[in-house]
């Protein structure tokens, strides 16, 4: 308690001062003392809580506010009465040093509490941040600097602290030199070298490819999977922080340059628009940096005009009383330069070093340094972030184009480009040059894709820095705010802030670069190399362009449609998938291009750029060009809805497709031929009266595709669906029997029809075929995804993905059987019985054929997962379609529940469905059993119980990692149906015994879930 008594004794001078001047009453002083004593006792506990320190600080803050409020009211009342010549009120005036003493006492107490908090919780970054925020609020510069130094020495890898410290020096103290030094030390302390990334071993003297032994191990396989030269799309939190640190370093240098430009413009000096030679090596960086330091001290002039003298005096006095309470930390001092500090005078000649700074040489040299320092795998994010930063930075006498498509004009000169535009263009072209250099040296084919697509799209991403800027109209630019900006520097102040937590230029890129879940569900990533590695850069750049052109909002149409545009539950007569209602509106940038008539010029420049590179580029670049054309033709993504412009894009696409389909032996373009026929079918089915001749021609084309590629499930699926569509629209005797088949008992058409289906299914469902098509054509998925427009989508992804096409074909077969039997509802009993017997045998054939695939040892990994998914889909479809098929051994009038019971028993005996399939069957079939409890649904309960028991036993046998969730689903079913509580309790005990032997944590989690389940049910 001596520590408590010591702290209370230190507060006696403050209490005497408040009591002497009647600021607080005796009772209030006693209450404050007792609260301080209780809090001090809580702070010295062995396990002190951080909330106790914060509560103590809140008490002192409230007390200080109360004292100041009463003191100011006392002074105000006394002064107002003195004006009325009432001399007796002079004694109510407070001494001149009262407020200074109160401020010193308040700061000393708070610093003491903060110091003890950061000593107790030294590894809690938030404690240091709260300390810094309090000191910054009181403008205690020395305290802030010392606390920053101590925090950084304890948390050198916490990037946000480095950025916050630099932001304080840049904007709080207007000291660019200190900010530059802090950021440079932060980058040196947090290197993102190649050894920090998996697979980067070039600097360690290892070979480009790992040894055979390394490739056989799990860690070696992981390293091979992520080649050290490949672009990394998913970064760790640390890697993201380092990139943010680099981007903020570039931002700081841009702020420094722009402050000089604006100051020299006011002084009438050179604006820095002339071309100068740029340093080409890091040796030249010293002279540029030295010049930067010679002019940096003048930045203090910017901060002095925003702070009053009185506030500075008060903060200085407050700091003087608290400096001894804050320990110092050793930080390397900024490098000193011998060059004298000289303030430029009006009309003076600008030194050459200063001219290099004005022309943007520092960011360009820093860019070259980043290229050498950072691993190539993460540099793409940096380059794109810098393009966005340079594009939206408010250079005076330029046009600002922000990421969301907002356009702001700060132009003050005539002509196509202002001095700020010229500076921006130099920086942007420097980034493009570095991107091209890094791509050629490190990124392989994906790098070529990045350079070619980015160079072609640059005409519309930022036309003012492309070759077409001189051809653009400038009449539709928004009104310039140059005059107001030069007076208040509003845009520059906003852009000067360094973002320690979330930097929009770089952190907004990560979601744009990720493959959508709807495409990853297609199991397209298989094998050692991800097939998306080539197509992902194209998707990334197109998403970036879309954010600049349109504002999209998507609303799911229904819960069932939220999964993705490649849903597997497709009826046979459907050729379109409606996912979402998409609403879009053009951004300010796109509206400006359209209004001025510059949009066709920009689109023509993009298409011309691609066409010029197609003859000398790789095959994948041609498909990237097709993806861009589909993107531009989609109004919800590119915002282009002008009819003539869409026709121009369509003509370019037709020309490209003709070349691809005629000269495409080097590519796997089976999906492209299917997609072309599918588009023509969609156009015909959208008409009120489809052209029968055109449909017949399409059916002939589908036959040709089947003959060309008999093992592709998508070709058979297209062939089958076109045939069914023709059979619905007209009677054509030339069609194969399955499409115009009608049940006729004792007819050869019965066996012929099913044999036609079996031949189609066998052609694409063998073990060898499934093992070959484990990967999907990612370019086909990307093209369909970019063309998808939500409610107006007419794209069926199942035709593209072999695995999905095979499932859809088998499901269509089962639906065809169900449709045939449903047509026999009002026929004689004997004929209907034969039809249902035939239907049941046809469905059982589907189950046994797909189950036989799983018995093969040739299917492993992804191929086996595809075969399992096919069998599960068939089992589910058969079970829920069997209501139309009765058991031949029973009476013809057997109820649907008896029919389902018979089929469920057969499936449990013969099928090889997965645990998830049994759970799906149980949950869907027991939906009507969870609420009602009459005897009519006893069959549903018993049937669902069998499915759950099979799922539990199979999960135990396979040692499934989700075994606890399977048990919980079964227990939830038993409890909610209110039918078998004793069985539920015994099942719970059995589950705990099993899980305890496997994983004690899972057993505990299951027990907690069981208690919550029982509590909610009660």
From TrEMBL:
Biological process, per Gene Ontology: maturation of SSU-rRNA from tricistronic rRNA transcript (SSU-rRNA, 5.8S rRNA, LSU-rRNA)
GO CC, any one term: small-subunit processome
Region (Disordered): 296-338
Name of the molecule in the record: U3 snoRNP protein
Alphabetic keyword roster: Nucleus, Repeat, rRNA processing
Biased amino acid composition, Basic and acidic residues: 296-309
InterPro entries membership: HAT, TPR-like_helical_dom_sf, Utp6, UTP6_N
Entry keyword annotation includes Manganese: no
UniProt record similarity statement: Belongs to the UTP6 family.
UniProt cross-references to Pfam families, sorted A to Z: U3_assoc_6
Predominant subcellular localization, coarse grouping: nucleus
Gene Ontology molecular function, alphabetical: snoRNA binding
UniProt-listed SMART domains: HAT (SM00386)
Species name: Malassezia yamatoensis
Signal sequence, start to end: none
Localization, UniProt: Nucleus, Nucleolus
Repeat keyword on record: yes
Domain U3 small nucleolar RNA-associated protein 6 N-terminal: from-to ranges: 8-84
């Amino acid at each position: 308690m001596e520590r408590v008594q010591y702290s209370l004794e230190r507060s006696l001078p403050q209490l005497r001062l408040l009591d002497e001047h009647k600021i607080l009453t005796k009772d209030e002083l006693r209450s404050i003392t007792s609260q301080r004593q209780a809090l001090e006792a809580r702070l010295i506990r062995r396990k002190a809580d951080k909330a106790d320190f914060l509560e103590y600080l809140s008490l002192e803050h409230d007390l200080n506010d109360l004292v100041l409020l009463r003191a100011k009211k006392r002074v105000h009342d006394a002064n107002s009465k003195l004006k009325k010549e009432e001399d007796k009120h002079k004694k109510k005036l407070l001494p001149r040093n009262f407020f200074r003493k109160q401020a010193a006492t308040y700061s000393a107490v708070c610093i003491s509490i903060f110091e003890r908090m950061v000593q107790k919780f030294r590894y809690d970054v938030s404690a240091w941040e709260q300390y810094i925020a309090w000191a910054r609020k009181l403008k205690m510069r020395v305290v802030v600097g010392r606390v920053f130094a101590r925090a950084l020495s304890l948390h050198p890898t916490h990037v946000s602290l480095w950025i916050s410290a630099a932001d304080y020096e840049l904007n709080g103290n207007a000291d660019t030199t200190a900010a530059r030094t802090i950021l440079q030390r932060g980058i040196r302390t947090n290197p993102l070298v190649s050894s920090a990334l998996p697979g980067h071993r070039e600097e360690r003297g290892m070979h480009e490819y790992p040894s055979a032994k390394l490739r056989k191990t799990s860690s070696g396989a992981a390293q091979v999977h992520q080649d050290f030269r490949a672009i990394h799309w998913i970064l760790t939190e640390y890697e993201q922080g380092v990139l943010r640190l680099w981007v903020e370093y570039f931002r700081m240098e841009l702020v420094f340059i722009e402050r000089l430009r604006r100051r020299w413009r006011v002084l009438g000096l050179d604006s820095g628009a002339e071309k100068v030679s740029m340093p080409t090596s890091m040796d030249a960086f010293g002279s540029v940096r030295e010049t930067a330091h010679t002019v940096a001290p003048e930045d203090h002039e910017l901060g002095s005009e925003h702070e009053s003298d009185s506030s500075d005096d008060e903060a200085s006095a407050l700091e003087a009383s608290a400096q001894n309470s804050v320990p110092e930390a050793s930080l390397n001092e900024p490098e000193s330069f011998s060059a004298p500090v000289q303030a430029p005078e009006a009309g003076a000649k600008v030194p050459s070093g200063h001219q290099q700074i004005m022309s943007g040489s520092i960011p360009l040299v820093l860019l070259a340094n980043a290229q050498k320092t950072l691993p190539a795998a993460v540099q793409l994010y940096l380059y794109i972030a810098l393009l966005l930063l340079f594009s939206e930075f408010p250079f005076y006498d330029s046009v600002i184009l922000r990421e969301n498509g907002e356009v702001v004009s700060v132009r003050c000169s005539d002509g196509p480009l202002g001095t700020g535009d010229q500076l921006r263009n130099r920086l942007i072209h420097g980034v493009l040059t570095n991107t091209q250099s890094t791509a050629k040296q490190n990124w392989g084919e994906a790098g070529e894709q990045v350079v070619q697509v980015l160079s072609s799209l640059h005409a519309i991403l930022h036309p003012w820095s492309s070759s077409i800027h001189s051809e653009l109209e400038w009449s539709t630019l928004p009104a310039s705010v140059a005059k107001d900006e030069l007076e208040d520097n509003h845009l520059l102040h906003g852009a000067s802030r360094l973002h320690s937590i979330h930097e929009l230029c770089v952190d907004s890129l990560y979601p744009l670069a990720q493959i959508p879940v709807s495409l990853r569900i297609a199991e397209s990533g298989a094998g050692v190399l991800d097939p998306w590695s080539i197509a992902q850069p194209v998707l990334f750049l197109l998403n970036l362009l879309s954010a600049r052109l349109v504002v999209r909002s998507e609303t799911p149409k229904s819960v069932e449609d939220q999964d993705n545009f490649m849903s597997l539950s497709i009826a046979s007569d459907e050729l379109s998938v409606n996912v979402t209602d998409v609403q879009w509106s053009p951004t300010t940038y796109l509206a400006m291009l359209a209004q001025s008539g510059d949009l066709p010029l920009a689109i023509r420049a993009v298409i011309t750029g691609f066409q010029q590179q197609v003859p000398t580029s790789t095959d994948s670049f041609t498909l990237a060009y097709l993806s861009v054309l589909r993107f531009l033709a989609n109004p919800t993504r590119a915002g282009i809805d002008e009819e003539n412009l869409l026709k121009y894009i369509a003509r370019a696409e037709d020309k490209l497709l003709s070349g691809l389909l005629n000269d495409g032996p080097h590519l796997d373009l089976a999906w492209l031929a299917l997609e072309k026929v599918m588009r023509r079918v969609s156009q015909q089915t959208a008409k009120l009266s489809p052209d029968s001749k055109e449909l017949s021609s399409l059916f002939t084309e589908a036959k040709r595709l089947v003959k060309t590629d008999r093992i592709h499930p998508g070709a058979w699926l297209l062939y089958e669906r076109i045939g069914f569509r023709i059979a619905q629209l007209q009677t054509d005797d030339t069609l194969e029997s399955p499409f115009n088949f009608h049940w006729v008992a004792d007819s050869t058409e019965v066996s012929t029809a099913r044999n036609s289906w079996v031949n189609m299914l066998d052609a694409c469902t063998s073990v060898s075929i499934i093992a070959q098509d484990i990967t999907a054509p990612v370019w086909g998925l990307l093209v369909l995804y970019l063309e998808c427009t939500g409610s107006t989508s007419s794209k069926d992804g199942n035709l593209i993905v072999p695995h999905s096409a095979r499932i859809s074909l088998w499901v269509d077969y089962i639906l065809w059987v169900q449709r045939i039997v449903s047509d026999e509802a009002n026929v004689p009993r004997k004929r209907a019985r034969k039809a249902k017997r035939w239907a049941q045998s046809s469905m059982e054939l589907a189950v046994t054929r797909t189950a036989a695939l799983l018995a093969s040892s040739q299917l492993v990994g992804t191929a086996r997962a595809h075969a399992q998914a096919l069998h599960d889909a068939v089992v589910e479809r058969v079970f829920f379609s069997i209501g139309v098929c009765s058991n031949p051994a029973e009476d013809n009038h057997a109820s649907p529940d008896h029919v389902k019971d018979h089929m469920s028993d057969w499936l449990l005996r013969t099928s090889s469905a997965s645990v998830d399939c049994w759970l799906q069957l149980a949950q869907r079939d027991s939906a009507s059993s969870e609420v009602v409890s009459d005897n009519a649904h006893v069959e549903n309960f018993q049937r669902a119980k069998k499915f759950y028991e099979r799922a539990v036993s199979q999960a135990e046998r396979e040692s499934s990692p989700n075994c606890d969730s399977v048990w919980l689903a079964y227990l939830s079913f038993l409890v909610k149906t209110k039918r078998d509580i004793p069985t539920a309790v015994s099942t719970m005990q059995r589950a705990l015994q099993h899980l305890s032997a496997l994983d004690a944590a899972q057993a505990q989690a299951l027990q907690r879930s069981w208690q919550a389940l029982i509590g909610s049910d009660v």
